[in-house]
């Protein structure tokens, strides 16, 4: 799920759950809404993201690229090291500012991700 909040200068996306191929159908509508808001700063809250693949990374990259073309900036906050790695592998980490000061509230975050899912 992706929620959009706005202030006069900022759009904030709060992403919950997986950001992957399965969720891609909602990406064009969300991207159009974000671009249409024309805020200078886009903050993407990734505290509750449980998994991101290259499709999710491409979505984030397209948002950052659109903002950059308008002279804006995109900030990632609460981003997991694995998510940063996916963006780095895509060659797009420099499109983002990383909020390393943000600390997710334990009451609102998802449990830690398993490196290797357990099979039954």
TrEMBL record:
Q: Which residues form the STAS domain?
A: 1-91
What is the native source organism of this protein?
A: Paraoerskovia marina
By what name is this protein known? Anti-anti-sigma factor
InterPro entries for this protein: STAS_dom, STAS_dom_sf
Q: Mind giving the lineage of the organism this protein is from?
A: Bacteria, Bacillati, Actinomycetota, Actinomycetes, Micrococcales
> Which domain of life, per UniProt?
Bacteria
Question: One matching Pfam family, short form?
Answer: STAS
């Amino acid at each position: 799920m992706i929620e959009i909040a706005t202030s006069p200068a900022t759009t904030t996306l709060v992403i919950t759950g997986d950001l992957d191929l399965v969720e891609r159908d909602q990406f064009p509508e969300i991207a159009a809404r974000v671009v249409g808001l024309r805020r200078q700063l886009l903050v993407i809250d990734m505290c509750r993201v449980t998994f991101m693949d290259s499709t999710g990374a491409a979505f984030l990259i397209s948002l950052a690229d659109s903002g950059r073309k308008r002279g804006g900036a995109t900030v990632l906050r609460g981003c997991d090291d694995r998510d940063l790695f996916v963006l780095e592998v895509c060659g797009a980490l420099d499109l983002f500012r990383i909020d390393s000061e943000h600390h997710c509230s334990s009451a609102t975050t998802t449990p830690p991700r398993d490196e290797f899912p357990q099979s039954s």
